[in-house]
Predict the structure of MFS family permease.
Amino acid sequence: MPSPYRALFAAPGSRAFSAAGLLGRMPLSMMGIGVVTMISQLTGRYGLAGALSATIALSAALAGPQISRLVDQHGQRRVLRPATLLSLAAAALLLLAAHYDWPDWVLFVACVGIGCVPSVGAMVRARWAALYRGTPQLHTAYSFESVMDEICFIFGPIISIGLSTAWFPEAGPLLAACFLAVGVFWLTAQRATEPVPHPREHKGGGSALRSAGLQVLVATFVATGAIFGAVDVVTVAFAEEEGHKAAASVVLAVYALGSCVAGVVFGLLHFAGVAERRWLLGVCAMAVSMIPLLLVGNLPFLAVALFVAGLSIAPTMITTMSLIEEHVPRAQLTEGMTWVSTGLAVGVAVGSSVAGWVIDAAGARAGYGVPAVSGAVAVAVGFLGYRRLKRPAPGRGGSVGQHDEREERHLA
């Protein structure tokens, strides 16, 4: 491991909470696809399977920021454990209902409950921020966490689908629930690195989403999420048209691999410029990288194009986390990070739905027009909101170098 990453773990407790966070966020990439695989195998109803997966995503999008707001006020241990128990109970209900062929409405109720799963990635990033706020190490820490996200999306779906098809249909979601339980309870057992809560009476009320800068980030990442959701669905359809549907998981893993590689390299670099400029360049790069997908003619070319497209994802996400610190009060940092994840989740649901409609109407190749259009929308929102991102909230910000540059620019 390169020395900047090794230096991160000099802080006591950092190895343990990072490992717990990796386990705890594995369900993010395993549960939805696991439910689709399970339901399709047990019932053969792909429509129902997709609707249940979308229900989990939308429920998580609604519940996630509220859970994170409570975490900011009361602490991770007091909030995450009850929320996780509720999600685990709902997962158990889903497995039983699917196995014993209970009515569909029971499945949907269970999926709503599963959506109460906490945003473990935001919890781990909040711990890194508490350790390294205002130092260059925080950039490296966010880069490392972005790499961990991509590792989850490389291996999570493969594990979930593989278990459900090779062992028994419920195996994928069951293992995802086990990862969640172990990860969250291990993480919350580590009190020494838990960020200090900020009770409402000391900081005032209101959601972190009241921040104009955060609104821009969330709106942009709704469009970005549509890119991800559409690419997933269209790639599966394209692989099926090519007669190699199973290869879709490998091609999508290459997409995540590109982001993983970029995240590792990005974490080794340190930049003198302001973060919002790098963020806008990253959004533009993601949009431009969708154009070659309109020209794909075979799976090898698609894999290469998606690897290149993936190179812009992690750097943009890392820079986004830095910007959140500039536009959200410290007492609402976890909530702010979760709102961006919520925007992504909503975008994924919209993108996958629109892409499916386009595929049914015009075929898989036409479906790649959906991520291309979504990228253009992301760029438009980014440019329209750029002025808001240039005005961080008073008393907040990222690195010392960024503060100095802003002050020099203001004096000039």
Q: What stands out?
A: Confidence is low (pLDDT under 50) at residues 397-412. The CA atoms of residues 159 and 172 lie 7 Å apart. The chain has 20 helices and no strands.
